[in-house]
């Protein structure tokens, strides 16, 4: 049986004797295959040549990328995170794959990397993701002693996402609920009452809910989370008939894909007349709702799964559109304490 080998390059030469000879190469510009086409030896040499071609050259950036892919920091990521990494790793391999590792110790290489990033400035988020991925590859290499300096440390970002005031208030929530299907209503309620990410909510199973609390492991970090469902959410869940193991399903009763849910959510917001708000903003809104209810940052972090520092930074930078309300609450508590103190002092006289 003849095996079709992709990319074999055939060249004909006229020898000095006048005889036409045919030579075969694994690919155009590749090594010559010194065997008869159609034989097992030809297939073996072809396969070995391509295997060697894919093998990262020792001492190059390609080797560092390969080591990153084999590292636990990559292999333990969720499938979605791996896909995102691989997208930018391919860009790095194409651009810098043959760069010698020794070149990374040259101070000028940071400028080379910066120029590469800035060349993507017309798509700032892409530029930042590519830079962060490269920095992560080099960070792992440095941690393992492969390089002594990471030239991409503290690179800064081009894209600045200002989510200040991007809060789902009661008005926006009511607009969406007025046109939402039962499944989308449940998605919104889960988001604002648990503060979990879209990916974790789409993975949520009925077996994760005991009628009062959710117990889940965050897909991004593996962190175990226990979240009590608020009464409005418990009531909605009790009225929802399961159609499969997942709590959130599409109109066919099948688990949502990330892209499918994002598309349907966008259409829902368009029907409700909502602009400038995303499903991800519901998570930040959950943080703000908890803060307005008087919860401390540690309490909020225990619910949403954010790092404590991230909760503080989020409230400080992005989600303080309700700063005035928080300030009012603080002054009311102070007034209550002052009034109580004066009352006690008055009773002593």
Q: What summary fits the major beta sheet?
A: 2 strands, antiparallel
Described by the principal axes of the CA atoms, the overall outline is elongated
Q: State the name of the first-level CATH class of the largest domain.
A: Mainly Alpha
Order of helices and strands: EEHHHHHHHHHEEHHHHHH
Distance between the termini: 108 Å
- Overall mean confidence score, pLDDT: 84
Secondary structure elements and their pairing?
Layout: E1 9-14, E2 20-25, H1 40-54, H2 61-70, H3 72-75, H4 79-96, H5 108-118, H6 124-143, H7 170-179, H8 182-194, H9 198-203, E3 213-217, E4 224-228, H10 231-238, H11 258-272, H12 280-292, H13 297-304, H14 308-317, H15 323-348
Antiparallel strand pairs: 1-2, 3-4
Helix pairs in contact: 2-6, 4-6, 5-6, 7-11, 8-10, 8-12, 12-13, 13-14
Could you describe the 3D structure shown?
The chain is mainly alpha-helical. The protein folds into 3 domains: 46 residues, no CATH class; 83 residues; 158 residues, Intergrase catalytic core (hpI Integrase, Chain A, Orthogonal Bundle), CATH 1.10.443.10. 54% of the residues lie in helices and 6% in strands. It has 15 helices and 4 strands. The strands form 2 sheets. The protein has a two-stranded antiparallel sheet. Strands 3-4 form a two-stranded antiparallel ribbon. A hairpin with a 5-residue loop joins strand 1 and strand 2.
